[in-house]
Design goal:
The complex is a heterodimer of chains A (about 290) and B (about 240). Chain A has about 290 residues and is mainly alpha-helical. Helix content of chain B is about 35%, strand content about 25%. The longest helix of chain B has 18 residues. In chain B, the strands form two sheets. Chain B has a six-stranded mixed sheet, sandwiched between helices. A four-stranded antiparallel sheet of chain B has the order 2-1-4-5, with helices on one face. Chain B starts with 11 loop residues before the first strand and ends with a helix. Chain B is globular. The chains are: A mainly alpha (about 290), B alpha/beta (about 240). Chains A and B meet through helix 6 and helix 7 of A and helix 2 and helix 3 of B.
């Protein structure tokens, strides 16, 4: 039972990060119908920038701010300079361009920072408190929950309570109609990419201290988990992304804890295949009703 | 029958417009005037270029040649998303209700072109015009009937406070009673607020019953331009182009 509790909290904590990262994928999918396979590489790039600033200034939080703002800028630039010019007649085009971006970003990072792991220290202790003799949560886990929770709340408020959120949703669902109503559809798309990349960068900053550290490929495995989370939830559903993230986090923790760490990544792929076979639109996809 | 060029007095002036998809023009040298507070019906068979005309005016399609001016402003080069700022609202064919958004959100969209949208943006007025929508504020677009979607699309366009409404086939798929209700509303708005309407309609009788003027398009060219009551009474023209 102790072990089960420990694994559950560990899974939720990891799952929260997957949720944030999956949310970033869903944001872009909803806005542009592209799975941004470069999300992981973009997040690593901004994390390098963030930790460079943190090293230079001695302030983790300044670095954190630089990473997230860097994500905002990088997302906007990628949309404006690259993705806007991709021919979207075939969904594969966007995927191939995104994979090309991955190679470029990882190559450039390798050239600048080298191929070794660099430390990515956490801003809070990762030692878990003991409650009733079981080590359950660390300060850092609480920080992760709070940060992801804040992102979810802020995005929800943005999309449901603000004029800009309504413009963004309308532009994503019905671009031509939105244009006729005066919505700057191109601008909304850029904003969507910027927000998504910022959320991805935040997820990167949250997960890197719990892994081996900074490396150009550091987010590759996380991307697979987060992508699975997004597909499990249904690529169109922000709620699904959050639930999917937590499910994948728990699955990884339980399988890793009970069956061994080497089996865990395979469990994620099995989950992906099962969902794709059984419910290809995801668990939270709305009934198809988007014609006319 | 007069097919000469209109006098330059209108709110919307279309001069020698040639436009279409790709290299093959659908519209050839079209002239058209819509004055403030006037309803002009564009009539013609399928493929005559009626929808193309509206799409070109609102900037969804580029004009190959000719001029479009609105209240003295040259609309060439004005982006689609800026048209509503000039006072032009376009209700496209197939209505364009955003089915993933609620009725209220769709209506609010009509008011969002303003940098700072008004709090309720006069939406209560729209609900007064379409009481059927007031009871369904929180329903999603795809839960609405065809008639409700049409009302929502028109209501949303009116929420933008346009001076010119471009309306494409409002009667499509609607019961005659509902069509009459919607067209009656347009007539009231014209009389009350001076709204100008460029109305594309297959249902010739209904359209001419509220229009001030009718323009007949045939194979992308203006075949006739006439006062609506005279056009409705011109048997030769009706037989030749309108099929009744």
């Amino acid at each position: 039972m102790d072990r089960f509790l420990y694994l559950t909290f560990d899974g939720l904590s990891r799952g929260a990060v997957y949720a944030a990262f999956a949310l970033a994928l869903v944001l872009i999918w909803r806005a542009a119908r592209i799975v941004n396979f470069a999300q992981g590489a973009m997040a690593v790039a901004t994390a390098y920038a963030g930790y460079s600033v943190a090293d230079a200034t001695g302030s983790y939080w300044l670095g954190f701010l630089v990473a997230v703002t860097g994500g905002l800028v990088l997302g906007a630039v990628v949309e404006r300079v690259v993705m806007r010019f991709v021919d979207h007649s075939s969904p594969l085009n966007g995927v191939v361009v995104a994979l090309g971006l991955v190679l470029i970003i990882q190559g450039v990072l390798g050239m600048i920072y080298g191929d070794g792991y660099r430390p990515a220290p956490a801003p809070f202790s990762r030692d878990a408190f003991e409650i009733g003799g079981i080590a359950i949560l660390s300060r850092y886990d609480l920080f992760v929950f709070a940060a992801v929770g804040a992102v979810v709340v802020l995005l929800t408020l943005l999309f449901t309570r603000t004029a800009t959120g309504l413009r963004m949703r309308a532009a994503a669902f019905a671009p031509d109609v939105s244009r006729l109503l005066g919505v700057p559809v191109g601008g909304m798309l850029t904003l969507g990419w910027a927000l998504a990349a910022a959320v991805g960068s935040l997820a990167g900053m949250l997960v890197l201290p719990t892994e081996l550290g900074l490396h150009p490929n550091a987010m590759d495995l996380l991307f697979v988990s987060a992508f699975t989370a997004a597909v499990v939830g249904g690529l169109d559903s922000p709620v699904g992304a959050v639930v999917g993230g937590l499910v994948v986090g728990l699955l990884l923790a339980y399988v890793g804890g009970y069956l061994g760490a080497t089996v865990a990544p395979m469990a994620v792929l099995v989950l992906l295949v099962v969902v794709l076979l059984g419910r290809p639109d995801g668990l939270f996809a709305r009934a198809k009703a988007r014609t006319a | 029958m007069t097919t000469g060029r209109p006098q330059g007095t209108g709110l919307l002036e279309v001069d020698g417009l040639t436009a279409g998809y790709g290299a093959a023009p659908v519209l050839h040298d079209v002239d058209l005037t819509v004055g403030a507070g006037r309803i002009v019906a564009v009539l013609g068979a399928n493929g005559a270029g009626k929808t193309t005309l509206l799409r070109t005016i609102s900037g969804l399609l580029p004009a190959a040649a000719g001029r479009i001016t609105f209240d003295g402003v040259d609309l060439r080069g004005v982006k689609v998303e800026r048209m509503v700022r000039h006072g032009i609202a376009h209700v496209p064919e197939g209505r364009g209700v955003v089915t993933e958004l609620t009725v209220d959100e769709n209506l609010r969209l009509g008011n969002l072109w303003r940098r700072r949208p008004k709090k309720r943006g006069g939406l209560d007025e729209i609900y007064d015009l379409f009481p059927a929508l007031a009871g369904r504020k929180n329903h999603l677009g795809h839960q609405l009937s065809g008639g409700e979607r049409q009302m929502l699309a028109i209501g949303r366009a009116l929420a933008a406070r346009p001076r010119l409404l471009l309306l494409d086939e409002p009667s499509l798929g609607l019961a005659p009673k509902l069509t009459a209700q919607i067209l009656g509303l347009l007539r009231d708005l014209r009389d009350r607020t001076g709204l100008a309407v460029l109305l594309v309609e297959q249902n010739v009788r209904s359209a001419l019953s509220i229009a001030d003027e009718g323009v007949v398009l045939n194979l992308g060219r203006i075949a006739a331009r006439e006062r609506a009551d005279k056009l409705a009474g011109d048997a030769d023209l009706r037989h030749a182009y309108l099929g009744f």
